[in-house]
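Quick one, probably user error.
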């Protein structure tokens, strides 16, 4: 068990005020939020047990699974006390009981894992009215259709990592008018995925690179925000199509759980749909 569980628990108890959970606020507090002993009391576990969790020394005692991980009852109690939402609760389970990484099949490689099946590419190409692309769990773009290329410039990009483009490419400031919201969402989703892929070297290298190069990323990563980017609305500013408010949906690729199709789905008859149609025509004319 690495320090991620402890860091996450500390960040979450720091945001809970004692009065929010019915505790008195007497005495001077050296740190914001709940004390360790208060979390332990409210969750119904011993102080020593909770301290062991925060210090990454393993659960110990009876409140654990047969494999030695933290039990569901304890995790559920902590989630209740710390007021975790569904995504945070899921993340707590992932970092408290990290799954063992399977042995890679003979001849397999990261390149093999990042390949998109031809049938998936055909699906993307068939979505000629919707920009669509495939991401892996590190938020690297693996495949895209022509309209996504026209909108986001994947075909001519030197780097297809969305986090790198967002934090290291100055052009992202022009592309995303609400950039602060986009950066927070991206980091929260990347952390959620990192929790489901413990020990993934490439993810660790990406986080280390961005932490060194971007103070903005370091600050957001230290907040331990956890949230999936599975649907929503993205505001984009394109030099040809102008300002676009684009709803998006995501779908997991069957048989490839670490690959996700992201599709922008403007409402029929909307201004965004018309602007995308014009962008598609412009891109086709330019290609000819």
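Nope, works fine. Designed sequence:
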């Amino acid at each position: 068990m690495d320090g991620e569980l402890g860091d996450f628990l500390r960040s979450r108890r720091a945001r809970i005020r004692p009065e929010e959970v019915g505790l008195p606020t007497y005495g001077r507090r050296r740190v914001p939020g709940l004390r360790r002993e208060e979390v332990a009391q409210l969750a119904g576990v011993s102080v020593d047990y909770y301290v062991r969790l925060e210090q990454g020394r393993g659960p110990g005692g009876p409140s654990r699974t047969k494999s030695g991980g933290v039990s569901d009852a304890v995790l559920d109690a902590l989630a209740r006390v710390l007021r975790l939402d569904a995504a945070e609760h899921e993340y707590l389970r992932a970092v408290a009981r990290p799954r063992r990484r399977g042995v890679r099949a003979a001849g397999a490689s990261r390149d093999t894992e990042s390949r998109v099946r031809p049938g998936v590419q055909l699906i993307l190409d068939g979505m000629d009215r919707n920009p669509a692309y495939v991401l892996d769990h590190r938020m690297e773009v693996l495949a895209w259709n022509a309209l996504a290329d026209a909108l986001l410039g994947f075909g001519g990009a030197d780097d297809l990592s969305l986090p790198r483009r967002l934090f290291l490419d100055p052009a992202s400031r022009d592309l995303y008018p609400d950039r602060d919201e986009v950066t927070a969402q991206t980091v929260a989703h990347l952390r959620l995925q990192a929790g489901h892929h413990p020990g993934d070297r490439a993810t660790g290298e990406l986080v280390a690179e961005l932490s060194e190069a971007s103070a903005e990323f370091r600050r957001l990563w230290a907040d331990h925000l956890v949230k999936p980017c599975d649907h929503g609305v993205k505001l984009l500013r394109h030099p040809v199509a102008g300002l676009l408010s684009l709803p998006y949906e995501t779908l997991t690729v069957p048989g490839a759980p670490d690959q996700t199709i992201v599709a922008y789905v403007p409402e029929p008859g909307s201004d965004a749909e018309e602007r995308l149609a014009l962008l598609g025509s412009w891109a086709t004319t330019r290609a000819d």
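Residues 102-109 have pLDDT under 50 and may be disordered.
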